[in-house]
Design a protein that fits this description.
By secondary structure, the chain is α/β, with parallel strands linked by helices. It has twelve helices and ten strands. 37% of the residues lie in helices and 17% in strands.
Length: 339
Amino acid sequence: MPSSRIPSCVRLLRRGVLLFLAVLAMSGGLNRAPAQDMADEPTPVVLDTDIGSDIDDTWALAHLLRSPELDLQMVLTATGNTRYRGRVAAKFLATAGRTDVPVALGPSGEAAHEYQKPWVRDYQLDDYAGPVRENGVSAFIELVRAADGPITLIAIGPLPNVEAALDRAPGIASKIHFVGMQGSIDRGYGAGSDPVAEANVKGDVDAFRTVLRADWRSFAIAPLDTADPVALTGDHYQKLKRSDDPMLTALFANYRLWADRVTWTEVGYFDERSSTLFDVVAVYMAYSREHLDVEAIPITVTDDGITRRDEDGIPTRIAIEWTNLDAFYGHLTRRLLSE
């Protein structure tokens, strides 16, 4: 709906929310992660992921598993061949010694971009010692409803699972802190680039719109502005690559397979650096925002998936820039090494 047709009462309400978020930002509230409100207890987390296509989802899962502030209670696979994605997640969890974590399968679609498939060629979901839930959306709804307190949902892919859950059980949103890697506000892919339709939004625009409008306990995103610059290089990268830790060995085995097979980019840098680690930023935002500038920005979404600043849009907590990206690199490296 064009802004000129939005009722004045709705405009006033949105501006009131934006003013509240601005006051919250001044008090430091926007820079508090969900885990920081859980005192000494780790915050329960569900990861909604399209793991198995871009390798950054696997890095994000590794990051999550090494974050003591977060208690991973489910991996929910999204889009494409969700059973394949479940196999990748299950084997990685097993390698990390975390077969207590249920693997839940979202609705399956057409298989595409299965670059890590050789790693699970001889691994089936029946091999996983932990729980496997065939109806992942229902399992997610049940988990949220049964929880004694809030759940943090870290969403690092397109959002059809989340849209389906909201359609079936809209009331669950009030129990969920949503943290996602979606959007492109002031930059796109590459330094100095213009905003674009970011892949996770473009992959299901209607789902993102539904999620953006939901009545979450809190809602925050890491767009390309802060996700696209992230890649490990130099000593940080080499320390991880040299590690004999089983989980990191599995991570780099998957990175090697991905680098040799991915079709949308040329990867000639495996020995020197990681690929872009978009999704680790959303994981970080679930437990800390120390090195990020999080602002309250009203946005709307175009039909082609561009997330635009719009004074009449929906006020959204957005990690718009890094305050110290180098410090984050050191933090991420130490965390993955369990140092």
